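Issue: ligand-bound run for iron/sulfur cluster - logging full I/O for the record.

Environment: standard queue, default settings, no custom constraints.

Inputs:
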Amino acid sequence: MTVRIDKKLCNGCGNKDESCCMRICPGNLLYKTKNNKAEIRDKADCWDCAACVKECPRQAIEVYLPVEIGGRGSTLKAKDLGNEIVWTLKTQDGSVEEFTIRNKLWFNWNL
Ligand code: SF4
Ligand code: SF4
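Outputs:
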C-alpha cells in the first residue's frame, strides 16, 4: 500500500527546500520534482504511517488502507485543525465518513 499525492492540490509548500511531507516522512521517501510537486520515491517502501497525510497543509495526500485491516481500496485524508484532526474515509462504493481525533498529542521531533 502507499500514498497518493494530488498534484493539483500540492503546491510544494511554497519555495521551501524541504516541504512538510518531506520533513515528516520517517523513511525519507518523499521529494519534490522540478515542477515543485511532491512525489514518492519508492511506493513499496511506504509503510502507511500516514504522517505525511496529517502534515500536508493542503490535504493533497491520501493513504490507501491496507487489506489487512479491511481497507480494500478505501482511502484516508486528514485535516489538521490544531487541537484536533478530522479524518475523511472514502470507500470504493463512494461512501464518505468523517471522524475527529481530539486533544492530539504533540511530538517535538527536534528534542
Ligand atoms: S506537504 Fe502537501 S503541499 Fe506540501 S509538498 Fe507535500 S504534498 Fe505538496
Ligand atoms: S505514509 Fe509514512 S512512510 Fe509513507 S510516504 Fe507518508 S510519511 Fe512516508
